[in-house]
Write a structure and sequence with these properties.
The structure holds three protein chains of three kinds.
Chain A lengths: L19 H8 L1 H18 L1 H4 L30 H37 L1 H15 L3 H12 L3 H11 L1 H15 L3 H9 L3 H38 L10 H7 L8 H39 L1
Helix pairs in contact in A: 2-4, 2-12, 4-5, 4-7, 4-8, 4-10, 5-8, 6-7, 8-10, 10-11, 10-12, 11-12
Chain B lengths: L9 H14 L13 H4 L6 H11 L23 E7 L15 H10 L4 E3 L5 E3 L2 E6 L5 E6 L13 H11 L14 E8 L2 E6 L6 H5 L13 H14 L7 E7 L3 E6 L13 E7 L2 H10 L4 E4 L4 H8 L4 E7 L2 E7 L15 H4 L3 H12 L2 H8 L4 E3 L16 H4 L6 H10 L11 E5 L4 H15 L3 E5 L2 H9 L5 E7 L4 H9 L23 H12 L3 H17 L4 E13 L2 E2 L16 E2 L1
Parallel strand pairs in B: 1-10, 1-11, 15-16, 15-17
Antiparallel strand pairs in B: 2-3, 4-5, 5-7, 6-7, 8-9, 9-10, 11-18, 12-18, 13-17, 13-18, 14-18, 19-20
Helix pairs in contact in B: 1-3, 11-14, 12-15, 17-18, 18-19
Chain C lengths: L1 H27 L5 H5 L6 H10 L6 H13 L14 H36 L4 H15 L2 H15 L15 H36 L1 H7 L5 H19 L1 H18 L5 H11 L2 H29 L7
Helix pairs in contact in C: 1-13, 5-6, 5-8, 5-11, 5-13, 6-8, 7-8, 7-11, 8-10, 8-11, 11-12, 11-13, 12-13
Classes of the chains: A mainly alpha, B alpha+beta, C mainly alpha.
């Protein structure tokens, strides 16, 4: 569901390749905001114990307390500070979001590149399976896998990783098919480069743009998937705070404690939004570069 | 303990005491329990007789004798459509009495099906499908004259054949999970179309009040042979055909069941309502929203989530009626795992107190601040527990146990014990896992917090769905588990099911080589439990039950936490007369809406 | 083209079979014995064995598979292992109209929001309105649907009490009850979808508007609205049809979660409840039917697309 926006005006020639990314993103205000929010959240998640005055499991306070100076986002039904729990919740969400996409990316790219490069029966087998998986939305596949493996955080990570492989495999294969006809590949082959070298040193770097864009999109969906699974009771089972679980627990108290239902969802939304802004900017960026490169050739 | 709200007048207390004394005033060896054949015969048992029978069976509780609460307003006209929500359940999987194992299901079935007898809250036993009955001198032969002119919902006439058919179906464990209830019945014979003879192996006090009664009995709840044949077992479980005041108009599994007035019910005065719709509502919040919005006017089913009770009490449109609930919940500690390993409970408590494993068990049990737990986990709506015998068992409940038990809350002692066991201030104590179901997650987090703040030990939640949890529990593959029981009206339900070495919940799938017993085993407990089952003298039975209960408590068979309460919530426009407030039932036959 | 349709249909059948088989085998190797859970209260190992035999759970797996597959081909999806052991096909048959109603209504609501939003955004490109719509669209697809559902419940059901919080009422019992029970969940499901659609329509419209044909026609000025609605818009919709398949899939995925929030017993709730109860036959049946709907929807969309746009190469 990558939506192609109309391209913006072409930027001026960048003097330094590596920092052009940052500069181009800086032009897009939304993306900058997104980047800052994500950076803040990541840092908060990492340094949570130092930042929060309370322990996320401490049931010391009044139960179902409305937001106040001592507890800016209120307390939950067991008397725990909500803000603290949400910050700790960021750890799981960000960790699951990034680790699952990383694993899906690695698996998907390996599969896709192999299929696209070698072709033949390998391609057929791999792509038949990938098409099979692609026919279904990732979340549904994750639910199916949890039905099979069982609930719990580690199973959720495996389930989401497997569910997202199809996106990367397809993109990787598509890129490989295009690139392998390029002249420089033929050149490398004449020089005697091995298949492996060609695949991973020559083709892949040039294919990376859409894969990276897909990765950002996938991270936001992975975070939503984990939240959804935990919300349904299929995810994290202990008392580790994750946003989806906090949201699910809030349902019994929803009419008395709107903050318990509002803030966890808000945190999810802000994170996903930030990633989407960033992803959008990256997509524009790579579109521009791609068209430039192709034009140059 | 906000359980029994009313304070009794001196007059009321005196009445209760007199009634209790009279009830227990008989010779336990008398096969007719101190009553005459006249008194035991139909067509109706008087209150004193019923009290006597219940006392003889040991099921009489002081609570049964309390003056009823209920609307004494003038009865509204009949008619109307009542919408009820059933709490904590997603769908009514079966209403076939032979398969029902949950009280919430029986609450519905009791409106559709009938038994031979029926007890109302005044404890007057009335004939339901039986018009009259008599008993032989030796108390083992009963003759029932069945009511004439009764028809099933499908038009079939009710005859003695149906009684015998139900008996034959229910006594077969392949058809019915309640076959054990009939173990004392040796035969049931049709004399003619409206007369049945029932033979017992031994005189049984609870025969009229349990076996035949459509409430706790169930084994002899009369089913329709024609209905079963026509619909098949599966469909019959969804839309049973019976002789009760309501018939099933439709049942959409998971959405609602609609009951309609049965025009040909044998009592033309009942039911009053035209229609009852019952909707399963599994989550707390939608349930509360539904009754507050008026989508439903009554809540039945599983116990209402405790967090909602305050909210309902504060609502002037709603009436909340709270009674003691039959059940208990505990934290179990695997006696085969460190650090609370106890390979042999067959020693006096003083000996056990010297063992390291036992010290840890006791420390944990004594550190569980039950009051704090009840306040935070149950919003104050529960009774602290020190044994499996709960307040709904009235007479048998030991109120003093909270003071006498070895498990009584004592923080200093708990900490001392833990230190003596080698874990001063929790140092070096391993992180243990506690098994629990998703619905208990909230409560277990409170337990975790209490143990952390009181003993400085860490336990981790291990939440598993029920099928997986049971599997692991039965195999003894766990450190700690939070599990308990409900629907326990008789001491047997607590002791026989949990505390004996042969109990069905006592690690039945464990590796028997490595583990001679499962969760607990004590020879004296085994012996006394067997004896109390056969004890017909209620005073003696009470003594035994309380003694056994104390042993299980002192020896920390588990760390008992609480007994739940049972709250009934209804809209003020619903007249649910006191006559219908029978423990465990929700009979709508006399209910009206104004 | 009929060759294409035939090939795609064949592929669809293969997919269905593969899913069914995978699910069947994988569910068997999972921990958690449902028979034990069912008999917890009764505690009789003999009864347990009896039940296992009754359900054929004691035979080797491959025999179970063939038996199951055979029954599948005649439409027998087996029975639930709990309670009255109701037929799975019946549970699904009763759940299906709810999920379909919900999906259809969500789709309509999404379109009602997305079409005007996308159009206005495209026509007034780069205006404040455009930026506002784009931003709101971003927001919409970043919000988890179960969160939207909860917020709607808080506002409209718990506080204002305009609408019911839970449940479902079939159309046969009146339009308004049916509608009032479905409107909140439909908004929850439809919102992220509307956001995606709005953006798609916007960019698609921009593409079309930029073509020379449009530029020329535009210079004639006064015919603008007619131009847009009669010429530009239908052309813009073509690429949108491509995402219909994905759209339907997304909507169904959304219903799984939202049905649980509103306690509507559609396919999603049946599936989740089955998973939590380890009720194998129900889970299998639900996965099969849900998968069938996706595969069928995709097939339909592919065929539709080739009909609409004959320029597409088929395979």
């Amino acid at each position: 569901m990558a939506v192609m926006e109309a391209t913006k005006g072409a930027p001026p020639e960048p003097p330094d390749q590596r920092w052009v990314w940052l500069r181009l993103i800086a032009r897009d205000r939304k993306a900058m905001v997104g980047l800052i929010v994500l950076a803040v959240m990541t840092l908060a998640a990492i340094f949570a114990p130092f930042l929060t005055p309370y322990d996320p499991s401490a049931q010391d306070f009044a139960m179902i307390g409305a937001p106040s100076w001592a507890h800016p986002l209120g307390t939950d039904d067991l008397g725990r500070d909500l803000l603290t729990r949400l910050i700790y919740g960021a750890r799981i969400s960000l960790f699951v979001g990034t680790s699952t996409v990383f694993m899906a990316l690695v698996a998907g790219v390996v599969l896709g590149v192999s299929a696209g490069y070698y072709g033949g029966w390998l391609d057929t087998i791999i792509m038949r399976y990938i098409d099979l998986q692609w026919a279904f939305p990732n979340f549904i596949i994750a639910v199916y896998l949890v039905a099979v493996f069982g609930t719990g955080l580690s199973n959720v990570i495996v389930a989401i990783s497997l569910a997202f492989v199809d996106d990367f495999a397809r993109i990787a294969r598509g890129m490989v098919l295009t690139i392998k006809e390029e002249q420089y590949i033929a050149a490398a082959r004449t020089v005697g480069a091995s298949d492996n070298r060609i695949m991973w040193r020559h083709i892949l770097p040039n294919a990376s743009a859409p894969i990276i864009v897909q990765a950002t999109v996938s991270v936001s969906y992975a975070i939503l998937a984990e939240a959804g699974l935990s919300f349904l009771g299929l995810g994290v089972q202990s008392d580790t705070p994750t946003w989806g679980l906090i949201l699910a627990d809030s349902r019994s108290f929803i009419s008395r404690a709107w903050w318990l239902g509002f803030y966890p969802g808000l945190f999810i939304m802000v994170t996903v939004l930030s990633i989407n802004f960033l992803g959008d900017a990256l997509r524009d960026l790579f579109d521009v570069r791609e068209s430039k490169d192709i034009g140059a050739n | 303990m906000r359980m029994i709200p009313k304070t009794l007048t001196g007059q009321e207390k005196a009445t209760i005491e007199t009634e209790l004394k009279q009830a227990y005033d008989f010779d336990p060896k008398d096969p007719l329990f101190g009553l005459t054949r006249q008194q035991l015969g139909g067509p109706e048992l008087h209150r004193r007789s019923v009290l006597r029978l219940m006392a003889a069976a040991g099921t009489l509780t002081a609570w049964h004798l309390m003056p009823g609460s209920g609307i004494k307003a003038a009865r509204a006209a009949s008619g109307g459509h009542l919408k009820a929500g059933w709490a904590g359940v997603g769908e009514f999987r079966t209403l076939d009495p032979a398969q029902i194992n949950q009280v919430l299901l029986f609450q519905i079935a009791s409106n559709i099906l009938s038994g031979l007898t029926h007890i109302n809250p005044q404890l007057v036993a009335q004939g339901d499908l039986a018009a009259d009955w008599s008993v032989s001198d030796d108390g083992r032969e009963w003759i029932f004259n069945l009511r004439e002119g009764v028809t099933f919902h499908n038009g079939d006439p009710f005859t003695a054949d149906d009684v015998v058919f139900t008996y034959n179906r229910s006594k077969n464990p392949q058809n019915s999970i309640h076959s054990r209830v009939l173990s004392n019945v040796t035969d049931m014979v049709k004399i003619d179309d409206h007369t049945v003879k029932i033979l017992l192996g031994a005189p049984q006090a609870s025969f009229l009040t349990k076996t035949l009664e459509r409430a706790s009995g169930r084994a002899m709840t009369i089913v329709s042979r024609g209905g079963l044949e026509q619909l098949g077992e599966s469909q019959y479980g969804l839309t049973p055909v019976g002789t009760g005041p309501f018939k099933v108009a439709s049942h959409t599994l998971g959405q609602s069941i609609v009951l309609e007035r049965f025009e040909n019910y044998y009592d033309p005065e009942r039911p009053k309502l035209d229609k009852v719709t019952i909707i399963p509502i599994i989550d707390a919040e939608p349930l509360a929203a539904a009754i507050e919005a008026g989508d439903i006017q009554f809540i039945g089913g599983n116990p209402v989530a405790p967090e909602l009770i305050d909210r309902f009490e504060a609502n002037s449109d709603l009436i909340v009626n709270i009674v003691p609930g039959p059940g208990f919940q505990s934290v179990w500690m695997n006696p085969w795992r460190e650090p609370f390993k106890v390979p042999d409970f067959n020693k006096p408590v003083s000996e056990l107190m010297k063992e390291k494993g036992f010290k840890v068990r006791l420390a944990i049990a004594k550190a569980l601040d039950r009051d704090r737990y009840i306040e935070r986990a149950q919003f104050g709506r529960a009774v602290p527990a020190y044994g499996t015998i709960n307040p709904a068992m009235g007479f048998y409940f030991d109120e003093a146990l909270g003071e006498d038990s070895n498990q009584k809350y004592d923080l200093e002692a708990a900490r001392r014990l833990l230190a003596e066991a080698g874990y001063p201030n929790g140092e070096g104590f391993p992180t243990l896992k506690i098994l629990n179901t998703p619905s208990a997650r909230r409560e277990v987090q409170v337990i975790k917090d209490i143990l952390k703040r009181n003993l400085n030990i860490n336990i981790e939640l291990d939440t598993k769905d029920f099928p997986v949890l049971i599997d692991e529990f039965d195999r003894m593959d766990w450190d700690m588990t939070r599990i308990g029981s409900g629907g326990d009206y008789d001491p047997d339900d607590g002791l026989v099911d949990w505390m004996q070495t042969s109990s069905k919940f006592n690690g039945r799938n464990r590796d028997k080589e490595k583990m001679p017993f499962g969760i607990f085993s004590d020879a004296e407990v085994d012996r006394l439990t067997d004896e109390q089952r056969l004890q017909s003298d209620p005073q003696k039975r009470k003594e035994m039950v309380q003694k056994v209960n104390k042993i299980t408590s002192d020896k920390v068979a588990c760390a008992f936490i609480y007994h739940p309460v049972d709250a009934q919530i209804r809209h003020k426009s619903v007249n649910f007369p006191a006559e219908s407030r029978i423990p465990g039932l929700v009979d709508f036959d006399l209910t009206t809406i104004s | 083209m009929s060759g294409f349709i035939f090939k795609r249909s064949l592929w669809a059948i293969v997919v269905m079979w593969a899913v069914a088989t995978l699910v069947f085998f994988m569910l068997r190797i999972v921990p958690g014995d449902p028979i034990a859970a069912m008999l917890f209260d009764v505690g009789d190992p003999a009864a347990a064995d009896e039940l296992r035999r009754k359900f054929g759970l004691d035979q080797p797996v491959y025999i179970q598979y063939f038996k199951w597959f055979g029954r599948l081909l005649v439409g027998d999806l087996g029975n639930s292992i709990y309670g009255s052991r109701i037929e799975v096909s019946r549970v699904i048959w009763e759940a299906l109209p709810r999920t379909l109603s919900l999906t259809a209504l969500s789709f309509l609501i999404a379109l009602v929001i997305a079409i005007p939003a996308g159009l206005i955004s495209a026509l007034k490109r780069h205006s404040a309105l455009d930026h506002a719509v784009t931003f709101v669209a971003f927001l919409g697809l970043s919000m988890p649907d179960f969160w939207i559902a909860i917020l709607l419940i808080i506002t409209f059901a718990a506080n204002l009490q305009w609408l019911p919080a839970i449940g479902y009422s079939p159309l046969s019992e009146g339009f308004w009850p049916w509608f009032s029970h479905l409107i909140l969940p439909s908004i929850a499901i439809g919102t992220p979808f509307a956001a995606i659609m709005a953006r798609m329509i916007r960019s698609s419209m921009l593409e079309v508007l930029r073509t020379e044909y449009m530029q020329v026609a535009r210079s004639k000025g006064l015919l603008k609205l007619r131009l847009v609605m009669v010429h530009a818009f239908p052309n813009a919709l073509i690429p949108v049809v491509t995402v219909m398949g994905i759209a339907l899939a997304l909507l169904l995925a959304g219903t799984i979660v939202v049905e649980n929030v509103f306690s509507i017993k559609g396919l999603g709730r049946v599936l989740i409840q089955g998973i939590l109860d380890r009720d194998y036959p129900i889970v299998q049946g639900a996965i099969l039917v849900v998968s069938f709907i996706f595969v069928f929807a995709n097939l339909l969309v592919d065929v539709l697309y080739t009909i609409i746009d004959p320029r597409i190469r088929y395979d």
